Inverse folding.
């Protein structure tokens, strides 16, 4: 060491130089502790915006070819990213599905099995894991997990609502900000939540951010704002042939609160969706304005689908396609090959948390049931899961039996508790699931294999 | 409510109790079956027409049955207890049908608690309100027919009508029925979770 020229130089430093060096080192240490991501300037993590809507089913998008619904801003998002046309939820109900989005786990694991069983505070959310690596985080909007409002670990800003059992109100909905109730700033909730989201995104910061923007729209009572109210007046609603306006009153459907003819509710739903799309446009515009679009992952998803008369049903819960399929769009310009395409792999709500962690460069915890869909963004032909488990648990007083189902690329096999018999559908031949193959020669041939798959998935296996 | 008017001849039990309730029950059953099968009709226009018609008739038979049963029983000589009993037969049978249906999904305790849900309570409060309304109508009609100076409006039917209106507001109109639903669910959680 004594022959090292640097060592010789060290010996000749003056007191002033030594003080300067020490001072500089101290300043650097202080700066690094305040802004840890500056230590890893070459490892710049992306910003993340996850937007979750309510009851928005997969085909109610302009980019999915819907005959009259216009969603120009969601279409714009899809044009810059990947639209997953085969996205599903593992439980088609608000609270369990939301639990699955935020934890990456099935409902039977995170514990929010229905809209009654409480959120378990020991659950780990992707926000918590992002916070641990230096993200600024915010949860804005609908929490709606049963139990007391949690103190979400790893969330810097928690803005939510608790009125109407956590469902919120479309107009003048009081918000809970850091535990205190405050009146709404804007009368319409989708705009109000978006304003808070834009405030968060616009903050000057050194850290990357993650925004979880969870809308009430387009849940029942489907109230649109004045600017979109009536925009679909006179449009042919194109409702399925088996539907009629009184479905909202029959077979226990009155519990879904859709008093009045279904046509009216559907029109309002479409108008509330148009308003949601407009507000999403504001978020996208803000990213462009701030010049951070390229380094921001934007994910849009619905928490479950919705029946509008198909199978003579309204609401969700049942395992048919209208209920379990959701819109899912992922845009990350720096990451995506061939943007503007549709991906047909079967992706799930439980995949969102691992995907976010993966794209943020964080190891995905082994306890998560989902898989990162990032490989599909890079490679359209990425190999993927062959089958997955659907589960639904009793949710009093709604009259839907508990059930488990397996969905493959081609088939769906459903086992119900209670008196309802099992069902088996060939999705390719019968996409509307009108012909139950049970007790047919074809069904008898296929069913044993599917049953085996179902049992395997129920035990936590992957296929 | 006054007892059976002496100007009315008391008919047989079947005519004064069973038949009026049975008429409503038959209408209820038929409209239920027709509504449940209407989606099988190939013609969309006809399907919607039949659905509309049968659903409206079904709704009226469940919610407004007492408007038929009570006056018929009254003018066939049924006493006040019998009139109430006859008027309650259709909604009770509907409720039993619903309980059998939901017992597939719920435990016995939950099924019993289902009886007290806001919709069922509204059906029964509404039924008493409609009975009271019918009582006033029948009295007025009898007064005109007999010319006797009997009081038409008395405390009990007015109270029943007011209760029904208040019930309609609390259970169905206040917050679109959502507030009562959440109260009902709070009690459910306290009892079963």
């Amino acid at each position: 060491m004594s022959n090292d020229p640097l060592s010789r130089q060290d010996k000749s430093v003056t007191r002033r130089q030594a003080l300067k060096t020490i001072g500089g080192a101290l300043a650097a240490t202080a700066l690094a502790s305040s802004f840890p991501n500056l230590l890893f300037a070459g490892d710049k993590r992306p910003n993340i915006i996850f937007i979750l809507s309510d009851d928005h089913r997969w085909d109610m998008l302009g980019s999915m070819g819907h005959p009259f619904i216009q969603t120009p801003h969601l279409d714009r998002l899809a044009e810059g990213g990947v639209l997953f046309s085969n996205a599903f939820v593992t439980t088609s109900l608000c609270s369990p599905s939301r639990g699955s989005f935020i934890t990456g786990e099935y409902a039977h694991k995170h514990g929010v099995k229905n809209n009654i069983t409480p959120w378990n505070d020991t659950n780990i959310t992707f926000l918590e894991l992002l916070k641990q690596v230096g993200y600024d985080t915010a949860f804005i909007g609908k929490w709606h997990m049963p139990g007391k409002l949690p103190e979400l670990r790893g969330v810097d800003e928690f803005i939510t609502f608790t009125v109407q059992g956590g469902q919120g109100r479309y107009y003048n909905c009081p918000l809970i900000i850091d535990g205190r109730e405050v009146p709404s700033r804007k009368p319409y909730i989708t705009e109000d939540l978006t304003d808070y989201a834009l405030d968060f995104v616009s903050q000057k910061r050194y850290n990357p951010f993650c925004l979880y923007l969870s809308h009430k729209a387009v849940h029942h009572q489907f109230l649109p704002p004045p600017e979109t109210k009536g925009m679909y007046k006179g449009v042919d609603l194109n409702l399925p042939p088996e539907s009629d306006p009184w479905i909202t009153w029959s077979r226990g459907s009155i519990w879904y609160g859709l008093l009045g003819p279904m046509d009216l509710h559907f029109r309002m739903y479409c108008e509330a969706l148009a308003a949601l799309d407009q507000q999403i446009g504001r978020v996208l515009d803000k990213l462009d304005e701030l010049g951070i679009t390229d380094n921001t992952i934007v994910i849009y998803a619905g928490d479950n689908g919705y029946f509008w008369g198909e199978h003579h049903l309204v609401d969700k819960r049942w395992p048919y396609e209208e209920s379990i399929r959701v819109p899912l769009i992922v845009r990350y310009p720096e990451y995506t090959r061939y943007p503007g395409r549709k991906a047909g792999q079967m992706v799930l709500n439980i995949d969102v948390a691992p995907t976010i962690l993966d794209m943020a460069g964080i190891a995905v915890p082994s306890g998560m049931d989902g898989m990162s869909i990032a490989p599909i963004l890079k490679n359209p032909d990425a190999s993927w899961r062959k089958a997955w488990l659907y589960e639904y648990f009793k949710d009093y007083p709604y009259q839907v039996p508990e059930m488990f189902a397996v969905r493959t690329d081609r088939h769906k096999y459903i086992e119900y508790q209670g008196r309802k018999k099992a069902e088996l559908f060939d999705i390719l031949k019968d996409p509307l699931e009108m012909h139950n193959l049970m007790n047919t020669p074809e069904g008898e041939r296929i069913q044993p294999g599917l049953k085996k798959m179902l049992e395997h998935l129920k035990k936590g296996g992957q296929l | 409510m006054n007892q059976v008017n002496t100007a009315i001849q008391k008919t047989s039990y079947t005519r004064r109790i069973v038949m009026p309730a049975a008429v409503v029950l038959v209408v209820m059953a038929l409209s239920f079956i027709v509504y449940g099968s209407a989606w099988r009709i190939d013609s969309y226009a006809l399907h919607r027409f039949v659905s509309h018609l049968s659903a409206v008739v079904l709704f009226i038979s469940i919610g407004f049955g007492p408007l038929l049963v009570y006056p018929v029983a009254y003018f066939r000589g049924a006493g006040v207890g019998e009139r109430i009993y006859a008027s309650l037969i259709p909604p009770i049978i509907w409720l039993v049908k619903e309980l059998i249906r939901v017992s597939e999904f719920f435990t016995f305790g939950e099924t019993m608690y289902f009886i007290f849900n806001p919709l069922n309570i509204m059906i029964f409060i509404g039924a008493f309100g409609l009975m009271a309304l019918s009582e006033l109508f029948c009295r007025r009609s009898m007064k005109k027919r007999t010319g006797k100076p009997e009081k038409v409006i008395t405390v009990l039917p007015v109270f029943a009508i007011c209760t029904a209106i208040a019930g309609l507001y609390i259970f169905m109109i206040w917050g679109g029925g959502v507030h009562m639903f959440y109260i009902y669910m709070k009690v459910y959680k306290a009892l079963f979770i």
